[in-house]
Amino acid sequence: MKEVLLGNEAIARGAWEAGVTFAAAYPGTPSTEILQNIKADYSKDIYCQWSPNEKTALEVAVGAAIAGARSLACMKHVGVNVAADPLFTAVYTGIRGGLVLVSADDPYLHSSQNEQDNRNYAKFSKIPMLEPSDSQEAKDFLKAAFEISEQFDTPVLFRTTTRINHSKGVVEVGSREERPKPTDLPRDVKKYTMLPGFARPKHPVIEEKLAKLKEYGVTSPLNRVEMGDTSLGIITSGISYAYAKEAVPGASFLKLGLTYPLPEALIRDFAQHVDRVVVVEELDPFLEEQVRLLGVEVSHGKDLFPIVGELEPGVVLEKLAGVKTAVPAAAAGLPTRPPVMCPGCSHRGVFHVLKKLKVFVSGDIGCYTLGALPPFNAMHACLCMGGSITMAHGISKVMAGSTDPLNRTVAVIGDSTFFHSGITGLIDMIWNGGNSVVMIQDNRITAMTGGQQTPGTGQTLMGAEAPQIDIEKLVLTLGVKPANVRVVNAYDLKQVETVLKEELSKPEPSVVITKDPCVLNYRIKDRPMKVDPEACTACKQCLQVSCIALSMQGQGDERKASIDPNFCTGCTVCSQVCKFDAIQQA
Amino acid sequence: MNTINFLLCGVGGQGVLLASTILAKAALRQGLDVKGGEVHGMAQRGGAVVSHMRIGEKVYSPLVPMGQCDFLVGFEPLEAARNAHWVRPSGLLLYNTYRVNPSTVAAGLAEYPEDLEQQLAQFPCRKRMIPASDLAQKAGDIRAANAVMAGALSRHLEFPLEVWERAVAESVPPKVLEINREAFRLGREAGA
After folding, report:
1. A337 and which of A180, A273, A350, B48 could share a cystine (Cβ 3.0–4.6 Å)?
2. How near does any CA of chain A get to the CA of B1, in Å?
3. Which residues of B touch A245 (CB under 8 A)?
């Protein structure tokens, strides 16, 4: 049967068809929907869980694989940086049941903090890598990945990009390969315990496996030669294949699905049968460099295609076929429409206060990163998941001698991010005598990726009830003084300001917690606010809270602030910033 | 048949992706190949959203090449104008007349352009305004504007009505199906 599936839906389907019984992930665009779909459609057969971070997700998946289950770990590209530690050694231990790590890369950083090409991880960690080109292959290749994993006793890297994960395509779906449930748990100390003496002999084994995988790739259907016009031979993989095939359908193609290690003999053979070789790939010259190292002459690669950003099909068409489509100029001078905190979002009031206090705000990855944008401009650094607290600590240590309030630091972090890797940062700060204020904005959900459970929500991905980790008690246990742990109402601007000022004056770490839930996920809507046009002076102060429910309406003297009741949730933040009492609940 | 290229654009939260799903399912039931790409995540609510959709006998790339879009479905006038240059001169631009302020406008940092119609007039493609949000309200919920737009688009493709109706039924939650059916019907009337 055929269905239209998003790449991520196809990966979930592939996991089910492959007989996977264990899946773990930390949500992150563009990988999130893989586990969401496993939960929605296949959780009868597949145990699935959100893990606090990608390192723990991969580690539990390794454990499940050692126990004999086919196991899946999913994350976005930067998540693999977090999981790199277990990854590099899981290649040494090998697996028992198949283990596949999905790395969903994000060229052009549609929603990421950097642009990295995780194909490099395959080479660096010595792990075989598969790259699908569309939804059908996303499903089929995932099954192949498990077969390779078990045949070669190694984890497999399954590398996708946003345009695979978030593309829809037609998929012929199949049935599930039922696998016997493991019944024994054998002890194999030398295989799974990486003491130096046991790990040392593993490295040559890994090199042997890679050599065998090179041979495997020569005849594997994952790598496909499509001979056409031999004047142009294109070596490509992933989404780049789709763009190149569309641009020059009549050319000869070496379409690689197993992109590490490369099938040397196949590449040499292909190159001999075409007049010139062009490598078409997105981001790094990963294939090009390896092909060149084989001594194969590459006519064009990164000299034609950009090393930065997403490959654009129009560029591929132009460079390969010389066809340039005339495109009219875009409409000029239109206002931009950046993502924005939702009406009623509990982060809004906090950033309004932080802006007023003029402190240095060290931020983290989440909806609240939007506090960096105008009109708030109230976040001054953001590095990575969990980095807010540690950066603030480093900055405050350097600025320790300063009495200027401008040099005081506040770290802003969400609940999911705090559980991800903020906890260890807070331990660092407490241990090393820091004095930053850490604001944990606990909105009871992983909001930015669309609302996934966290260790604080009292529910697992599978819907089971779970203990709610109490952030307040946790930070007390870590050693923050009870007097310095404050819980505030995010919508009470005066309270937030007073408490922050008090905590900023202290010489030791403080934690200020908001517990107001995400309005979107918890569908919170109160009576909307209303502007009294008599009282409104059109000072536009309310617009400074950046809420799309608010705008100025009317002309000349009649121009007044106005609130769209369709959007307003009645959070009252705008009424608190109005100096003329012009905004009241309707 | 040649590949038909669609671009659906609007504001996060308007249901652009659901409308893309309806189109994709309808095309699949017609036995066509379908590919499409979308961007979401990063608190996209309130931000600009674009979804590419391509249907034909065999489609390779999920992305529509710039300047080769046959149908642009704009869920919001400003977003329609922002993407109008993707449309072929022979293409059609359908857009919802209901405005949603960008945060930059709500914050007083920019003005919502009053000359959007003139701006759009510079593009050679055909244009059709659809009061989709009003029609959705009439159908029972302003949030069904995406079904109205899908209905309006359906008038311009030669798929049987029952294929569309099935695609709608398979794409929306059962409890709002009646509203979405009605919204689709009103859109189909208005889209001619």
Report:
1. B48
2. 15
3. 60-61
Q: What is the pLDDT of residues B66-76, one digit of tens each?
A: 899 999 999 99
Nearest Cα to Cα of residue A108 among A11, A32, A30, A10: A30
pTM: predicted TM-score of the whole model, two decimal places: 0.96
Q: Cite the DSSP H helix spans in A415-559.
A: 415-417, 423-431, 471-478, 493-504
Taking CA–CA distances from B22, the nearest residue in chain A reads A4
Q: What's the CA gap between A24 and A27, in Å, rounded?
A: 10
Question: If you write DSSP's letter for every residue of B34-82 in order, what string do you get?
Answer: EEEEE---SS-BTSEEEEEEEEESS---SSPPTT-EEEEEESSHHHHHH
Nearest CA in chain B to A165: B37
Rounded to the nearest 10°, the torsion over CA A561, A529, A452, A112 is 10
Q: Which residues pair with B72 in a beta bridge?
A: B7, B93
Beta bridge partners, A382, equal: A363
Do the Cβ atoms of A339 and B25 come within 8 Å? no
pLDDT at B42 over 60: no
Question: Are the beta carbons of A288 and A302 closer than 8 angstroms?
Answer: yes
DSSP annotation of A307: S
Q: Does B19 touch chain A (CB under 8 A)?
A: no
Could you say which DSSP state residue A261 is in? S
Question: Inter-chain contact B25–A4, Cβ cutoff 8 Å?
Answer: yes
- Across the A/B interface, how many CB contacts are shorter than 8 Å? 193
Nearest to B28 among A170, A245, A342 (CB): A170
Q: Which residues in chain B touch residue A134, judged by CB atoms under 8 angstroms apart? A: 35, 62
